[in-house]
Amino acid sequence: SLMSNEIVVVSNPDADFVTAAKKWPTWDCEPSKFPWSYGQEETCYVLTGRVTVTPNGGKPVEIKAGDKATFPQGMGCTWEVHERIEKHYKFN
Fold first, then answer.
1. What's the Rg (C-alpha) of the chain?
2. Which of 5, 14, 42, 86 is spaced 20 to 30 Å from 23 by Cα?
3. What angle do CA 60, 41, 10 make, to 5 degrees?
């Protein structure tokens, strides 16, 4: 399991992952900055846009179109969306 403030980002994930992820629900957000917390672990696949996610007490992580990202359960963070983001997501 992930550390409570560790975000794992994979650039250009494998084709099987992308095929599966495209069946998940989608979420999008215009450029903005807001606090967020994860009640459960989430995996997402970013279709468009770019965001910096800064875990509380951790280092900023940039996530962009084409990336797979996993966010740990219990993490509080700040989302700063630089370019409108659209992602597929699922709770693990």
1. 12
2. 5
3. 55
Residues 31 and 81 sit within 8 Å (Cβ to Cβ): yes
C-alpha distances in Å from residue 43, one per residue of 84, 91 = 19, 6
pTM of the model: 0.93
pLDDT digits (tens, 9 = 90+) for 11-44: 999 999 999 999 999 999 999 999 999 999 999 9
| Confidence category of residue 2, pLDDT binned at 50, 70, 90 | low
Q: How far apart are CA 34 and CA 71, in angstroms?
A: 16
80 Cβ neighbours under 8 A, 6+ residues apart: 32, 33, 51, 52, 53, 54
Q: Are the CB atoms for 19 and 45 separated by under 8 Å? A: no
